[in-house]
Amino acid sequence: MSFEEKVVLITGAAGEIGRATARKFMNSKAKLALVDVNKSALEEVVRELKLEEDQVLTIAADCSKEEDVVNYTQEVVRYFGQIDVFFNNAGIEGKVGPITDLDIEVLDQVYQVNIRGVFLGLKHVLRVMKEQGSGVVINTASIAGKFGSTGLAAYTASKHAVIGLTKTAALESADFGIRVNAICPSPIHTRMMRSIEDGVAPGKGEFVKEKLIQSIPMKRYGEVDEVANLVYFLASDEASYITGNHYAIDGGMSATSL
C-alpha cells in the first residue's frame, strides 16, 4: 500500500482529520497538496510534519468559491503534474439548535461549504482525473448523513447530500477508471465535536460528551488516526473494486439504529 510518487490532494487539511490523513500519506512517501482557508494553519502543518519543499504544496482557498477551487486544482497540476487521490474533506458544523430556532443564514453557510464545496471539488478534480484515466476520491460525509441528528439540521442535511453526490460521481466516473467513496465518521476527538457538545448544552459539554459516549457500543469517541486509516485504505489499490458507497467509522453506532 505504498503511495510513493502519488499526489494526494486534501482539503480542510489544517483540521485534525485532514492533518492526520496528511501524516498517514506522508509516511507512505506521497506528495501532498494541502488546501485550507487558513494559510497560517497550513504552514503549521508543514512544520509539524517536517515536510520538504518538493513533497508538499500548500494553497489557501475557500472551497465554496469556484474560482478558488479552479485555482487549487490548476496549481496542483502545475506543481506535481497529476492528482491521484482527492480527499474532499473540508466541512463545518454550523450552529446547533432546533429547526424552529435557526436563521436561514445558518443553512446557507453550511450549504456553501459542505455541499457547494464538495460539489465544486468533484467538478474540477474529476476533470483532471478523467483526462488521466485514473484517480480516487474520498468525500467526508458523517453518520449524520445516514440518520437524523437532533439540533444539527443544516449539518445533517448537508451530509446526506454528500452521500448523494458520492453515488452520482461514482456512476459518472467508473468508465474513466476513477473510484469515488465517502466516509461517515461518528463523534471523533476534534474541535468540531467540542463545538457541537457545547452547542447542545452551553457550559455542559463534558456532560453531553459522556451521554454520547454511552450511545456508542465501543464506549468511546474515535481518533483522527483511525479515520485517516480508513481514508488510506479506500485510496489504496487494496480497495480497487470499491466505489459508490459510504463507510461508517462509528464504533458500532450504525448497528444500533433502526
From TrEMBL:
Q: Name one GO biological process term.
A: bile acid metabolic process
Q: Which GO terms describe its molecular function?
A: oxidoreductase activity
Q: Which domain of life is it from?
A: Bacteria
Identify the keywords attached in UniProt to this record, alphabetized: Oxidoreductase
Q: Which PROSITE patterns match?
A: ADH_SHORT
* Oxidoreductase among keywords: yes
Concerning NCBIfam families, the annotation shows: PRK07231.1
Cite the PANTHER family for this sequence: DEHYDROGENASES, SHORT CHAIN (PTHR24321), ESTRADIOL 17-BETA-DEHYDROGENASE 8-RELATED (PTHR24321:SF8)
What family does this belong to? Belongs to the short-chain dehydrogenases/reductases (SDR) family.
Q: What is this protein called?
A: Oxidoreductase
